[in-house]
Amino acid sequence: MTLSLLDLLIVGLYASALLAIALWVSREPKGVTKDTEDYFLAGRALPWWAIGASLIASNISAEQIIGQSGQGFAVGMAIAAYEWQAAIVLIVVAKWFLPIFLKRGIYTMPQFLDQRYGSGVKSLMSVYWIVLYTAVNLTTVLWLGGLAMNSLTGWPVMMCMAALGSFAALYSLYGGLKAVALTDIIQVVILIGGGIAITWIALDLIDGADGALGGLARVYEEMPGHFTMILSNDHPAYGDLPGIWTLLGGLWVLHFSYWGFNQYIIQRALGAESLAEAQKGLAFAAFLKLFIPLIVVIPGIAAVILASQGTLEAGALAEKSDRTYGELMKIAPAGLRGLVFAALIAAVVSSLASMMNSISTIFTMDIYRSMIGGRPEQHYVTIGRISAFVAMGAALILAKPFIGGFESGFQTVQEYSGFIAPGVVAVFLLGFFSKRTNTMGAFAALFASVAMNIALKFGAPDVPFIIRIWIVFMACVAAAIIVSRLSPAPAVNRPVALNDISFSTRALFNSLAIAVALILTGLYIFLW
User: Fold this and answer.
1) How far is CA 65 from CA 77, 295, 348, in A?
2) pLDDT grade, residue 418 (50/70/90)?
3) I need a labelling partner for 514 at 20 to 30 A (CA). Which of 129, 229, 234, 365 fits?
4) Please, are residues 359 and 134 in contact by the beta-carbon 8 Å criterion?
């Protein structure tokens, strides 16, 4: 056990405060019970600052903090492409996609697919997303969170996972999205504060460094290869981050699938009190995204030198890079270690709670309610809570066999998600902007996504993952267009009517969008 009494007191204070606030924001006036809009979409009353904070807290989970720190150790800043390019995608989603979703008043992504393509596509994607969130996303967050908690406490990994899952369920099942989103404001403050602390400590401990800034200068000077965004084709990690193709290829497809059409992310925007608030929230999240590599990737790069000078256990890091963040937490002093540990818990339980809420929303609103309608609203809220609890139990069982054997949990999530992401993006984009695309075309794109990914993965294993995703995406678009043209046109009410939707944005949003684009351009030029 490496946690002091002071550390435990800090973690306990954090957990108690979080639970108290979750119960407080979830309360209802006497005699009033939550309906489905209250539980699944926070009554459509979320302000921009809650949306932005919740997006970041939900996204920065164990796979980011632990997975990207590990990739920072093994690869370097190139892994930051997953964070920085996401900032651009958030701006695009806010301007071009949110107006469509909010105008149509949808609860879930499958509901949009039902309106556009019919119940068959909706049902297929509902099942896919539930399986993905349960068997891949929940399991990865639990496993990586359990590994880091095990490094610091010495508890068995299974016990750590059970503790994290129970805590997430305890504060989120009662209050729904409102409890998750509003407590995420606390989560993101603790998360960023703890991340800055561990970065500062790691850099400050580098031999010969004059403070943390001196440590950063020394790391940059001694490890220039870890400070390049575009890897050469002879780099060992080229297969995961294939040079210029990280800017021109399938990474954009993964980003749009995750940030634009992923229920557990976009659900915050669907719960906004207005379109303008939703757009400001996404722009705020995009701005915060620029700073995330500083608190998750930089510590991993510093760990290379800390391991070589004996400050960290080199053997543990060489065996599995995903242990990097857990080892870094050990070097924090008492008290600060508790804050960093609380930040890790905040990242993990926020994502777990978000995924549980999204699983329950899709299952209840898109599957259960379609089969068993006409029940009181409270009945569906109860079903949502039960389905979230069952999903968490299943993820606990599946975590080790599904994720434990892989070298990098972060890359594993990308690999699994990539099997269907090209089809998802093709179906949504064509659903927005191509009136001729029909149900048969949508099915063609979704099935082509899985089939071509499998064929290329095993038939052409040397093709880098991101290039493969781009090839499959282009094939999915072509399949959808060709099949749609060879089959009857969709019903008149199926295509999305855009004539009543305004895509104009306000001055504040436009200013933030320009600032994000300019900062990213500067970063890529400097780190090219």
Assistant:
1) 14, 8, 9
2) confident
3) 229
4) yes
Distances (CA, A) of 432 to 250, 281, 315, 368: 20, 22, 51, 27
The total number of residues shown for the chain amounts to 528
Per-residue exposure over 203-213, b if at least 16 CB sit within 10 Å of its own CB, e if not: bbbbeebeebe
Residue 277 CA from chain centroid, whole number: 21
Question: Residue 260 carries which DSSP code?
Answer: I
Q: Which residue has the tokens 């399949």?
A: 479
Q: Largest Cα–Cα distance of the chain, in whole Å?
A: 71
pLDDT at 408 over 60: no
**pTM (predicted TM-score):** 0.87
Q: Tell me the two tokens of residue 276.
A: 């303008």
What are the C-alpha distances in Å from 345 to residues 68, 171, 456? 16, 13, 38
The whole-number average pLDDT for the span 363-377 is 89
What is the assigned CATH class of domain 5-23+46-418+497-527? mainly alpha
Alpha helices, DSSP H, located in 274-376:
275-289, 292-296, 298-308, 314-319, 324-330, 336-362, 369-371
Burial bucket for residue 237 (CB in 10 Å: 0-12, 13-18, 19+): middle
Residue type for position 199:
T
| Region class of 231: left (phi > 0), else alpha (psi between -120 and 50), else beta | beta
CB 26 within 8 A of CB 179: yes
Q: Tell whether the model's pLDDT for residue 67 goes beyond 80.
A: no
pLDDT at 361 over 80: yes
Domain ranges of the chain: 5-23+46-418+497-527
CA dihedral (476, 482, 485, 488) positive or negative = negative
Number of neighbouring beta carbons within 10 Å of residue 193: 15
H-helix or E-strand spanning residue 127: helix 119-132
Cβ atoms 177, 42 nearer than 8 A: yes
- In angstroms, the Cα distances linking 326 to 122, 297, 329 are 40, 14, 5
Question: What are the two backbone dihedrals, phi and then psi, of residue 290, each rounded to the nearest 5 degrees?
Answer: -60, -25
- pLDDT tens digits along 452-464: 999 999 999 989 9
- Whether the CB-CB separation of 246 and 234 falls below 8 Å is answered with no
pLDDT surpassing 80 at residue 343: no
Q: At what angle do helices 439-459 and 109-117 cross, to 10 degrees?
A: 120
